[in-house]
Every structure is written in C-alpha cells, then in structure tokens.
Design goal:
Layout lengths: L1 H8 L5 H12 L2 H13 L3 H29 L3 H11 L8 H32 L8 H12 L2 H21 L1 H30 L2 H9 L8 H14 L6 H6 L8 H29 L11 H12 L3 H35 L3 H22 L13 H28 L2 H8 L4 H33 L1
Helix pairs in contact: 2-9, 2-13, 2-15, 3-11, 3-13, 4-5, 4-10, 4-11, 4-13, 4-17, 4-19, 5-6, 6-8, 6-15, 6-16, 6-17, 7-14, 8-9, 8-15, 8-16, 9-13, 9-15, 10-13, 11-17, 11-19, 13-14, 14-15, 15-16, 17-19
The protein binds tryptophan.
The site of tryptophan (TRP) has 16 residues, from helix 2, helix 3, helix 11 and helix 15.
Length: about 450
C-alpha cells in the first residue's frame, strides 16, 4: 500500500533534491521583494531581530513538524491530515489544517502573481535602456507609471499565471528540478555582485545601521505580528506547501538537519537583498525606507542603471527573480491541485485551470488596488494590503499554531519521533520542547497583542 501511495506522486531522488525543491519554494519574492520593504516600513533593526527570532523559535520547529506530517501522510495536505488523524483515532476537526492551507495558497497566489508580473515586466524594461543612468527619483517615477497602467499589469500577471500552471501541469518532480538546480545558485551569485555595487554606490554605513541597530521605539506590536507572519511566509509554512513537498521526501532522511539548511539559505538571501537595497535608499534622494511594495523597483534600477553592463545584469537579475517567484508559486497551488486529483478525481490539467483561474480572478483586485481602486481603503489598507495581512499575518500563523499543538501535544511522542527520522536524539528533544511550549506561546501572544494593536489602538 505504501508503494502505491508513493507511486501516485513519485518520490524525490534524494534528500538533496528535496532541499532544492523546498528552497525553491522558500526563496522567492518574500526574500527579495517583501522582506526589505516590510523591514523598511517597520523601522529596520528591531524588526529584523524579531524576524530572526521568529524564524528560529517558530519557523524552524514548525517546518520540521510540517515536513514530518507530509512524509508520514504521503498525500496532499488535506488527505495526509485525514489519514494521520484517522489512524490515530483523532477528531476530524484537525483536518481543518489541510483545508485552511489550500485556501491560503490560492489567496496568496492571487497577489503573488501580480508582483511576479512586475518582475517579468522589468526584464523587458531593463533591456530597453530607459533606465540608463537613472536616479532614485527617476526610477520611482518610471515604476509609478507602470502601477498606473492596469492593462499592462494584468497582461504580466496573466503571463506569470500561465507559466506557473504550465509547470504544475507537467508534474512537480519533472517540472521543477532543472530550473531550481541551475538558476538558484546563479541568483545567489548575482545578489553578491549587487551587494558589492550597492555598497560602493550608495550609503552602506547607513544601511547597516538601519537594518541591524536595535531601536525598540520604531517597532510596534503590529510590526512584531508582521515579522511573525513573514517567518511563515518566507519559509512557505502554514499552508501545506512544505507538507506537500514532505510527501516526496525519502523515508529516513533527517528532517531537522535538512530544515535548518533551508532556513539558513532562505535567511541569507533575504539579508543579502536587504543589504543590496538599503544603501541605495539612503544614498539617493527620492526613495524612502517606507516606500512599501515599490521599494525594490525604485532602488535596484538605480544600481543597474549606473553600473557598467548594468542593463544586461539588470535584465538577468529580473529573470532570476521571476524564476525564484516561479518555483515558489508552484508550491502555492500544488497542495490544492494534488487534493483535487486525489479526492475529486480531477485530472492535473483541470485541477490546475480551476485553481489558477480563481487565483487570477482574485488577483485582479490586487492589480486595481494600485490604481483605479487606490482610494478604496479600510482603515488605510488597500485590497492588496488586506489580502497580504489576512493571509500572511492571520491565516499562516493560525495554521502554524494548530500544527504546533497537533504535533506537540496531540500526536504520540513515539509516533512523532519515529516519523522524524535520523536526527540526533538531543536535537529531537530540544525540538519537541520548543514546539510544545515556546512556539505556541510566541504565536499566541504575538497574534493576540498584534491584532489588538492593529484594530483597537491604531
Ligand atoms: N516562500 C515564498 C517566498 O518567500 C512564498 C511562498 C511559496 C509561500 N509557497 C508558500 C508562502 C506557502 C506561504 C505559504 O516568496
């Protein structure tokens, strides 16, 4: 029976392939686009520290739990949870973990595709020379022009959705491997180049100070909640993506070691992106740290526009960002697709088209929130802000909390340890302690106080 289950989706050739795929899912717009701008909006240093703490105390332990559940269940998150709960004689309400994930995935994909569309657009924009020698002001002006043009935004969003669905149709294992294996290391190298240029061209000292010196006064509780949400977002946790990939992980590979490797790579990319972007923020007029979602598109063109061969590197960079977004977006839709196949008897193509269409449709709201609907806000938040906050800062941490409680308190320790595989016993003990006490406590406190501050003290 185990065999037939594995045959349904295929198994990763090795632990390394799993690392590549999970890193492909984790490293994306969250690291390069989102982390710098939310760090900027929330005052820098203290936020970055909170984010690192959340990765360590919540992200890594929950990720281990998710991979374990996926490998044990060996099916789409919804059905994996069904199976695990049924075998353990547990209440069916725990299956809600799988459900929330599928919904969160589609909602996140809806805006993710819009932003990835901006990156696609900038591949062409870099090549056409219009940003040659651009100042911060000029780069900001040109980006604002794109945001004011819903037609182009929708075209790029649609193009990205088609790319995503193309790979998912081909099947995850076949569709993914090559892209991740060759292009992600290249992205890493290019980020290093960017960092060096940015440090020479902009105000490096100010950037280091902003990102790493601890100023508590600039951090709000809502900011802490955003940092917690981002720990989930950047590691692709709390919606079953990593659970779905866990289903493809070889039987005895050590989950702890694997997860820590992924978390380190992911964090490194985010910090490098921040260190490339902020020297430009502080070194050029017309760009503010709290520029919001536009930040990356207002700053990086300044580097590319002014370095030798910059327009070529710029185009290449945005190709790589698009690929990183691509290998992430696949994991946003795959759990839902796998579930529709297993449970509703749909084929891959139909399942994909259905979910992709829903995500695309909702994404139109995000497109319009940057122009036509800009004025329609709720407590100052646009449609995009609301989607982002509701998914990243509400749904993901909540699912994460349930996963921590389920694995830490409900499942039998013997079952859990056996399912985790070959990590050192001491690592496993420490992990279980953090997952039982620290992670739920941190999520609970940050969630309640953060929401209270956002809605009642704002
Ligand atoms: N982690 C990706 C990023 O940082 C986004 C992503 C992919 C994601 N799959 C996910 C976020 C699942 C939350 C849940 O860009």
């Amino acid at each position: 029976m185990g065999d037939s289950r594995e045959r349904l989706h295929g198994t990763w050739a090795s632990r390394w392939t799993f690392i590549l795929a999970a890193t492909g899912s984790a490293v994306g717009l969250g690291n390069i686009w989102k982390f710098p701008y939310i760090a900027g909006e929330n005052g820098g240093g203290a936020f970055v520290l909170m984010y690192l703490a959340c990765i360590l105390l919540v992200g890594v332990p929950v990720m281990m739990a998710e991979v374990m559940l996926g490998r044990k269940g060996r099916m789409s998150p919804i059905n994996a949870m069904r199976r695990i709960t049924r075998e353990a004689g547990l209440h069916g309400r725990w299956n809600g973990i799988g459900w929330m994930g599928v919904v969160a995935g589609v909602l996140i994909l809806s805006y993710y595709a819009v932003i990835a569309g901006w990156a696609l657009y900038y591949v062409v924009k870099m090549s056409d020379g219009s940003l040659q020698g651009a100042s911060g002001d000029e780069a900001a002006r040109q980006f604002a022009a794109l945001l004011g043009d819903p037609g182009t935004l929708i075209f790029c969003q649609t193009l990205f959705m088609v790319l995503t669905m193309g790979v998912v149709v081909a099947g995850v294992v076949r569709g993914l491997g090559v892209a991740v294996r060759t292009l992600m290391p290249l992205l890493f190298v290019l980020l290093v180049v960017l960092l060096v240029y940015s440090a020479r061209q902009g105000d490096f000292a100010a950037a280091v100070d902003f990102l790493f010196s601890f100023r508590t006064e600039s951090l709000t509780w809502t900011g802490v909640l955003v940092s917690l949400g981002h720990a989930f977002f950047t590691l692709s946790l709390g919606m079953g993506a990593i659970m779905a990939y866990g289903a493809y992980m070889p039987e005895h590979a050590p989950i702890g070691k694997t997860v820590i490797t992924i978390a380190i790579l992911d964090t490194l990319v985010a910090l490098m992106a921040g260190m490339a972007i902020f020297p430009i923020v502080f070194g050029s007029p017309g760009v503010e740290p709290n520029a919001g979602p536009s930040l990356m598109f207002q700053t990086l063109p300044v580097i590319f526009g002014n370095m030798p061969g910059g327009l070529f590197f710029g185009a290449l960079f945005f190709v790589l960002v698009s690929v990183a977004a691509w290998s992430s977006s696949i994991s946003l839709i795959e759990p839902g697709v796998a579930w529709l196949i297993e449970s509703k008897g749909m084929n891959r193509v139909t399942a994909n088209l259905l979910l992709g269409f829903v995500a695309w449709l909702i994404g139109l709201g995000t497109v319009l929130s940057f122009n036509v609907w800009q004025g329609y806000t709720l407590g100052g938040d646009t449609f995009f802000d609301i989607m982002d906050f509701f998914t990243a800062s509400v749904m993901l941490p909540l699912t994460g909390l349930f996963i921590a409680i389920f694995v830490g308190w409900i499942m039998k320790p013997g079952v859990v340890f056996e399912a985790l595989g070959d990590d050192a016993p001491r690592t496993l003990q420490a992990w279980r302690f953090i997952l039982r006490y620290l992670s739920p406590l941190a999520i609970g406190v940050i969630f309640v106080v953060g929401l209270y501050n956002k809605f009642f003290l704002a």
